[in-house]
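Annex B, item 7. Sequence and structure tokens for protein A, then protein B.
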Amino acid sequence: MIKVIIPAVIAKTQKELDDILSRIKDSAGLLQLDVMDGKFVPNHSLDFDFRLPQRKCQYEAHLMIENPGKWIDANWMKVDTIIAHVESVNNPERIIESARDKGKKVAFALNPETGIEQIRDYLDRIDQVLIMTVHPGFYGSKFLPETMAKIRELRELQPELDIEVDGGITPDTIEEVNTAGANMFVSGSYIVKSENIKEKLDILGSLVSKN
């Protein structure tokens, strides 16, 4: 199974977004855009009509917002994968169909307190699951090791599913998450706030490539 390191981008203005993307350059093949409305989580990010440069990488939108369906209708063309929090979705079937109709990959995200049973009925119809290993909304939140049990449970249920983790991913935690069964690793502050983004990506990549 392919293992991927994914920088997470939080930006409150177009200038901040442009500055981050210019620093990442072509170091990563996939970037996560953290969209936050200040309601579902107590922070704001990319809650404006942002513009993305044409580049070789793909984008996934991590929608930490109250109305993911409305965002998808307005912004689907900007990204390749749409990740909606199941806690904010009234009709999971509609989210899946909406993304599929637009030719996009689709995933559900689970907060630390949310169990796998909330998405069990949809696992055969989505491309990946995002397990939050922190309480979402900010760079640098505390890593929650108890979420490893959820990753192990999901991997046992779906051996071929892409399992993504987001939150507190650093050299101190990524091997534990890798061993639990994840294969996509989102890292925010450790990568984006560093002076050498490519070096940080390489460090994380080397730690999960061992097994």
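Protein B:
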Amino acid sequence: MAGRHFDEWEVGDRIEHEIRRTVTETDNLFFTTMTHNPQPLHLDAEAAKESEFGQILVNGTYTFALMVGLSVGDTTLGTLVANLGYDKLVMPKPVFIGDTLHATSEVIGLRPSKSRPETGIVTFLHEAINQRDEVVCRCERSALLKKADQA
């Protein structure tokens, strides 16, 4: 499904994104090393065993990126001009290798752009949820979208 234009959204619109992703050791390893993050909790199984988690902890920035990625096809694919910001990012529960995540999105704000009349700003509340129905990541995302009659 392609994303929606600015004028096709209403505050309160909510989407349960169909795509799910099981996080693998390879996902975590590649993302962590690709971003030069030396945190032993993400890379060192022995150090992670000694932590309060008792196992490898998935890199939080991977979790965040996956959450946003899971949402794109239903929200902004083909209609996005630019992402303007991500606010109030929290990770209330840890993510571990083998967890399966899905995402939800809700429109919490809409406003026409003052400087670009052919666009508007949609603010989404995104959440990533694991197989135990625990929210593992949440943020507000502001996106500048094209209007339908400007596409």
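Comment on protein B: The two ends are 17 Å apart (CA to CA).
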